Fold:
Amino acid sequence: MRIAAYERYGPPEVVAITDRPDPIPREGQVRVLVHAAVVGSSDSAARSGTPWFARLAFGLRAPKRHVLGSEIAGVVDAIGAGVTRFAVGDRVFGATGIDLGGHAEQVIVAESGAVVRLPASVSMADAVAISDGALTALPFLRDGAHVRAGDRVLVNGASGSVGAAAVQLAKHLGAEVIAVCGPAHTELVRSLGADRVIDRTREDFTRARGRYDVIFDAAGKSTFRRCRRALAPRGTYLTTVPSFAIMVQLLTSRIGGKRAVIMFTGLRKDADKVPDLEYLAGARRGGHVPSAHRGGAAARADRGGPSHGRLRAQGRERRADSVAHRDRSG
Structure:
């Protein structure tokens, strides 16, 4: 099989297409023929080794794992002994977590892993795009902020993968959603269901006073200190980006009425991710969560001759809300 592999930290050019023997599933394992995978911010951190604390997970001096990619969708093409949850031919999607390995033609996952069947009405590309951001956004909104119907939720960075998912999920939970993004993405974000869209170049949302029950800083571009006055008396500030300040505020903010929350959703147990994946698949099938958008950076690994057997980046590298997928029609 072909894989997109890297041996050292560095810019995108350190990743190259190479060949590796097809993996064989062992007892309790499933092999997935990958149709779609995500190129996201965690892949960027794992590839570059920055920020510095990324190396605590991916290797101090050199990468411990050489194939990136954690969100995948595809078809089960082989199973190991004792597997009963899946069968050959099942359409599936999910997350490999810290094991990565999704940027390959085939990937091995545990039968008990964070992988579920994919409804026939949901495309492979939509599945990975939704799970990329929504698998983060859902626990933040549901468990971190306890969003309920009627809450006023502001999403900062609403055009990124987590932000776009947060807009859709907050609406699905019954909240009034105010979305903040750049001028190029206002119409896109509005189409995701936001009740109001703020152009960040024209309006500073932090100047509001006591207006929002939840501020979800999906882009990690603001701070609890800046957002605090904009929160309602018992409001919650959520951020996806760790820092020394937020770790302190996570503890000290519990004293007052307004809370600062950070969650490390990627480190959750697979058993906790499975029901969320099933929930997201069902929500997409029912039309409650719209199709994920395709802006930002993308990569495609195409089948074909040598001129096509490479990873091509499209657009600037960013907190990617887009899909890398391989055309299997040929």
Observations:
- Residues 2-118+294-325 form a domain with the Quinone Oxidoreductase; Chain A, domain 1 fold (CATH 3.90.180.10).
- The chain has two domains: 2-118+294-325, 135-266.
- Residues 124-144 form the longest helix (21 residues).
